[in-house]
């Protein structure tokens, strides 16, 4: 008796009867469950895609160990040109001013690089602002519209850097040569942890003179 030839098995991967997962290369109709519901099909992820999610904790730690020192090295190179051993470097680049109506507005950033052995608690700048006709006008042709001291709380550790900023407003007269503002500033005072300790000691001595039982 002749045997009935078997049907050729379709090429490719089979489809999951329970989850409806269609594997790559398979082109067959999804199978209904006993309720007549056809589960949504999902394409199986490729090996390349699975590899993106197979990072182990050790690999993540190694990546962080590479990234963090690299960032620190970049910052060190950027700051190395600003530090002066045994000295305090204060930069005020970026100071700007505008005149609107009869009001002057100054934006004063400050960057402190502490190359000393003390903590810099703050710096005081003396700021002069001039109203000029043009950006390249000589100061002799401009009019001074503000001259004041400005305190910045920096709290900069030894061999460290910090930044702070202030915004000042002031009234200006009507008779100005122009509305272009030039800002000049210079450091006139610094406050260190040694200065703070000295003030605290002097205060305790003064209190003892008034009250012998004072701490």
Structural class: alpha+beta
Biggest sheet character: 4 strands, antiparallel
Q: How many extended strands?
A: 9
What oligomerization state is this entry in? single chain
Give the CA-based shape.
extended
N-end to C-end Cα span? 118 Å
Keywords:
single chain, alpha+beta, Immunoglobulin-like, four-stranded antiparallel β-sheet, three-stranded antiparallel β-sheet, 35% strand
Describe this structure in words.
Residues 1-23, 156-177, 195-215 are annotated as: Disordered. The chain crosses the membrane at residues 57-74. By secondary structure, the chain is of the alpha+beta class. Among the domains are: 47-76; 88-204, Immunoglobulin-like (Sandwich). The protein is built from 3 helices and 9 strands; from the N terminus they run E-E-H-H-E-E-E-E-E-E-E-H. The strands form 3 sheets. Strands 3, 4, 5 and 8 form a 4-stranded antiparallel beta sheet that branches. The protein has a 3-stranded antiparallel beta sheet with strand order 7-6-9. Strands 1-2 form a two-stranded parallel ribbon. The longest helix is centred in the first third of the chain and has 24 residues, at 57-80. The chain is extended and about 60 Å long.
Brief characterization of the structure:
The chain is α+β, with helices and mostly antiparallel strands and about 220 residues long. It has three helices and nine strands; from the N terminus they run ββααβββββββα. It is extended.
């Amino acid at each position: 008796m002749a045997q009935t030839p078997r049907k050729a098995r379709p090429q490719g991967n089979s489809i999951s009867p329970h989850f409806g997962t269609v594997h790559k290369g398979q082109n067959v109709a999804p199978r209904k469950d006993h309720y007549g519901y056809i589960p949504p099909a999902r394409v199986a992820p490729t090996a390349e895609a699975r590899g993106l999610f197979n990072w182990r904790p050790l690999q993540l730690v190694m990546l962080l160990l590479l990234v963090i020192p690299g960032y620190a090295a970049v910052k060190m190179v950027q700051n190395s040109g600003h530090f002066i051993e045994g000295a305090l470097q204060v930069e005020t680049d970026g100071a700007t001013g505008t005149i609107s109506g009869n009001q002057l507005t100054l934006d004063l950033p400050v960057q402190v690089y502490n190359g000393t052995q003390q903590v810099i608690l703050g710096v005081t700048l003396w700021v002069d602002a001039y109203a000029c006709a043009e950006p390249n006008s000589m100061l002799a042709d401009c009019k001074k519209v503000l001259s004041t001291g400005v305190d910045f709380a920096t709290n900069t550790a030894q061999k460290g850097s910090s930044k702070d900023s202030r915004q000042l407003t002031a009234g200006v007269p009507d008779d100005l040569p122009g509305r272009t503002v030039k800002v000049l500033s210079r450091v006139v005072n610094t406050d260190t942890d040694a200065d703070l300790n000295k003030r605290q000691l002097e205060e305790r001595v003064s209190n003892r003179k008034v009250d012998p039982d004072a701490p």
